[in-house]
Design goal:
233 residues; mainly alpha; Arc Repressor Mutant, subunit A; 2 domains; three-stranded antiparallel beta sheet; two-stranded antiparallel sheet; 7 strands; WH_DNA-bd_sf
């Protein structure tokens, strides 16, 4: 009679589950910040589909993975390995926190942006994109794209306006043709809303040749038909 000890079925089952658990974790880690959905994990034919939920729960209890809802498709949940940041494709973008749009943060940044422009208005200056980006990068740790989104939001709210420098007066410290921002509408004060609106409608603001324009040049306000039409209007 063969007296060799046979493996304990329970012990063998544990070993198999550990192998499956490791494989599930590897599949989740493979996609980094996108992780994997339950259906993607079940697509692996080497793991019994009925084990997936149990394996995922075990990994969550061990704090190896977390469950994240897909903000663009709320019917799906993704499992992300703890060492990876959740992809923006799942969170909805930079302005979402814990799956919700962080409106208070957005409004706070918009207020700070208006304050920057307000200080420069009292100095009779406009503000360039580089200045605003520099401030938010240092103080708020925002990217250039995030800063542009805040500015775009303020423009749509008619809080500020986007203009191009003509090198004169409030634009004296900026290069001709450089993109700048200033207060608009109710924020401009002292009748600046009308002046700002008028300036924004000037053809100079959108002219691609403004950098070559000068009083004595081939391109000048005196020879520009578009500028003359604006004055006549």
């Amino acid at each position: 009679m063969d007296k060799r000890k046979r493996p304990d079925p329970k012990s063998l089952g544990g070993d198999i589950n550990e192998q499956h658990e490791k494989k599930v974790l590897d599949m989740i880690r493979k996609n980094q910040g996108m992780g994997a959905t339950t259906s993607e994990l079940k697509s692996d034919k080497t793991i019994p589909p009925t084990l997936i939920t149990r394996l995922v729960n075990s990994l969550k209890k061990k704090d190896l993975i977390r469950e994240v809802p897909n903000m663009n498709n709320k019917g799906y949940k993704h499992f992300i390995a703890m060492e990876f940041q959740t992809s923006k494709e799942l969170t909805g973008g930079d302005w979402y926190t814990d799956g919700s749009l962080d409106l208070s943060k957005i409004e706070d940044l918009k207020t700070k942006c208006v304050m920057i422009l307000e200080r420069q208005r009292h100095r009779h200056r406009v503000v360039t994109l580089d200045v605003i980006c520099g401030y938010f990068d240092k103080q708020e740790n925002l990217s250039v794209d995030q800063t542009k989104e805040i500015l775009k939001n303020l423009i749509l709210d008619n809080e500020i306006m986007e203009v191009k420098s003509n090198g004169l007066n409030e634009f004296a410290a900026t290069r001709i043709g450089e993109l700048c921002y200033k207060l608009a509408g109710k924020n401009s004060g002292n009748g600046e809303a009308r002046a700002g609106t008028s300036f924004a409608s000037m053809p100079c603001g959108a002219c691609p040749s403004i950098g070559l324009c000068s009083p004595d040049g081939v391109i000048s306000p005196g020879t520009c038909v578009y500028f003359q039409k604006w004055l006549d209007f």
